[in-house]
Design a protein that fits this description.
The chain is mostly helical. The chain has helices spanning 11-40, 45-78, 92-97, 104-132, 138-150, 153-163, 176-183, 198-223, 227-235, 240-268, 272-277, 287-296, 301-332. It has two domains: 2-73, no CATH class; 95-332, Orthogonal Bundle (MetI-like fold), CATH 1.10.3720.10. The protein is globular. The model is unreliable at 1-6 (pLDDT under 50).
Length: 333
């Protein structure tokens, strides 16, 4: 059936684009390096040492300006304009976000994601890392727990949509959780519609995906702790809880901070799971999904830009904290 429809791009054009991407871009970069190096030889040796780092950095800096700095600045300017971008409206877009019909509900849900998703994912990752470190099938257990992160966010949303599927009684339940509940004599739950459980249900999907990531990072740090130090503590009479609380946990805390801030940033950027499973309906909206709807559904580019700026401002402090922690760890090493 699909073969009856013409492709959006002719095959020859696709081949040309692929050739440009695979051959053309590397060729241009190599040519840039060769040409600039030849030109540098014409300059005095002292100037060569000063200019060479900047010339080598120039392509990366150009990409950074074009694809990061410029969009950020333009979004900030657009957040003070009306939807067509024809005139400035001051703080109207921000007032809308913090108004009763704006984005306070999405902000509240994003805070829920930040607290419960980050806390539970890091906590479970730490717990599992410590437990599987003591079993013979450690590699199998870690692989099994890490596998969900290999699934795309959209794929995970689709999988759990089937898990949470709800049919109005007396229709048979096709969702796994409701089928189990009714099979045990309970009542089915409208997981996505019910305001009491829908946000925790969506957060559970994120935890299911990211716990493996936290476990792997924390487990790698756990392996670096000297076994002689732990054995010396046990010989001195410390029980397992004291060994964990007094030795293992303090040594893991720098990594816990880094993983925690990474999970916080991930929570604030949550979009795919919410978009696929509820699209923000039933009081499940989050900031990133609200930004998408304002821009691509409501065509309110000013409001969407304001939401994007608010999301950026919320993420920046955690990024700064993450960078500081990383630098502290590097200084210790």
């Amino acid at each position: 059936m699909l073969s009856n429809y013409p492709p959006i791009w002719p095959v020859t054009d696709l081949v040309i684009l692929a050739a440009i991407a695979v051959v053309g871009v590397p060729a241009v970069l190599v040519g840039y390096i060769l040409v600039t190096e030849r030109l540098l030889l014409l300059a005095p040796e002292r100037r060569q040492r000063l200019l060479r780092p900047w010339i080598w950095l120039a392509p990366a800096l150009l990409f950074l300006v074009v694809f990061l700095v410029y969009p950020t600045v333009y979004t900030f300017i657009l957040s003070f304009q009306n939807s067509p971008g024809t005139q400035f409206v001051g703080l109207d877009n921000y007032e809308y976000f913090f108004g009763p019909t704006g984005g306070l509900g999405a902000l509240k849900n994003s805070v829920l994601w930040l607290v419960f998703f980050s806390g539970i994912a890091v906590g479970l990752g730490l717990l599992i890392a410590i437990l599987v470190d003591r079993v013979r099938f450690e590699s199998i257990a870690k692989t099994t727990i890490f596998v969900p992160l290999a699934i795309s966010f959209v794929g995970a949303g689709v999988i759990w949509s089937f898990m949470y599927a709800y049919q109005t009684p007396p229709a048979p339940q096709t969702g796994l959780l409701n089928a189990v509940a009714t099979g045990l004599g309970g009542d089915p739950i409208a997981w996505i519609v019910n305001h009491t459980v829908n946000n925790p249900a969506l957060i559970t999907v994120g935890i299911w995906m990211w716990t493996g990531f936290c476990m792997v990072i924390l487990s790698a740090n756990l392996k670096s702790i000297s076994t002689e130090l732990l054995e010396a503590a046990r010989v001195d009479g410390a029980d397992e809880w004291q060994v964990f609380r007094r030795i293992i946990l303090p040594l893991l805390m720098p990594t816990v901070y880094v993983v925690g801030t990474t999970m916080i940033i991930t929570a604030l950027k949550t979009f795919d799971i919410v978009y696929v499973m509820s699209n923000g309906r039933f009081d499940t909206d989050v900031i990133a999904n609200l930004m998408y709807k304002e821009m691509f559904v409501n065509n309110q580019f000013g409001r969407a830009s304001a939401v994007a700026v608010i999301l950026l401002l919320a993420i920046v402090p955690f990024m700064v904290l993450n960078i500081r922690r990383f630098r502290e760890q590097e200084a210790i090493r």
